[in-house]
Amino acid sequence: MAYLGNTPTTQSFISGTDYFNGNGSTTAFTLSRTVASVNDIEAVVNNVVQQPNDAYTISGTTITFTSAPSSGTNNVYVRYLSTTTQAITPSQGTVGTAQLGTITNIASGNTALTLQTGSTPTTAVTIDTSQNVGIGTTSPIAKLDVRGSGAYFYDNSTTDFQLTVGSSISTIGTTTATPLAFKANSIERMRIDSGGRVTMSAQPCFFAYTYSNNTQDAAKSFDNIPINVGSHYNNANGRFTAPVAGIYEFRASYIGVQAADTVTRIKFFKNDVIVLNGDASVARLDGTATGSELPFGEVTVFLNLAASDFITNVVSTDSGASLTNLSWGKFCGRLMQ
């Protein structure tokens, strides 16, 4: 007769009896076969048939008696009764993907499902009852919670996340008009909105300005600091201190009055060592080149800084001539990459 689906697999019955020697203290004995139920055998002690479940229990190849059989030679024996063995234990290495077929569902009842690796073993993947998936954690707090050591993609000082995509491009994002946000130390640090615009709320950036008179040959101070993300610019000493290593852009501009034929310079210092000596332009409203001049200068510099390097800027003249009304000063900077 034909079958619907796969052909049932059975194992033919082979009669047999296992004999054991009681010693008055041993209750568990090892059978020669795996047994699925207490009803698949008949256990006899001193020629008295034992009642299943009450007198003995079965677990795989182990039969355990409620009371230890008395001492004797072959005074305990087990006869196999089942015509078909219900529990078949495959030999190691004999089961592969072809034998497993297609796995459509793995259930674990009302508890979390775990996948384990290693000889210990260690839990590698956890799927909890809320369908949160944890890799490297048994208590995932989101739909995908990945923790472990490696290269930093996500870091909150105790866990970090490494994403490896091989030679192909991997897409991470949303399929709706919602933004994609990245957090570090449990705080959002970067966001990509549905239009592809990227914002980084913690990116170091500052802008300072003043309309008051400044002192030449000294780090400048400013009355107004409307932008100072991360508070890395300190107006008390005129320093911007790099919080992380990277390439930074700085810009400074000033207006002041100086003597004719004098070169005014806007200088940038890194850790109190000059790195740029920029010329400021000189112009008079009447076009002449004599008398007091009104210099205006704007200088931009790009610097590769290490963490804790600091930057200051100074305005001075080559000839030592004085600058008066050194006002309308602006100083700004930002981390580029």
Number of extended strands: 25
Structural class: mainly beta
Strands side by side in the biggest sheet: 17-16-25-20-23-22-21-24-19-18
How many discrete domains?
Answer: 3
Low confidence ranges = 150-170
Largest sheet: 10 strands, antiparallel
Q: What is the 3D shape?
A: rod-shaped
3D structure, described in words:
It is built from one helix and 25 strands. With 337 residues, the chain is mostly beta strands. The chain has three domains: 17-80, no CATH class; 110-164, no CATH class; 205-335, Sandwich (Jelly Rolls). Strands 17-16-25-20-23-22-21-24-19-18 form a ten-stranded antiparallel beta sheet, with no helix packed on it. The chain has a four-stranded antiparallel beta sheet with strand order 1-6-3-4, with no helix packed on it. The protein has a four-stranded mixed beta sheet with strand order 7-8-9-10, with no helix packed on it. A hairpin with a 2-residue loop joins strand 13 and strand 14. Mean pLDDT is 77; it is low at 150-170.
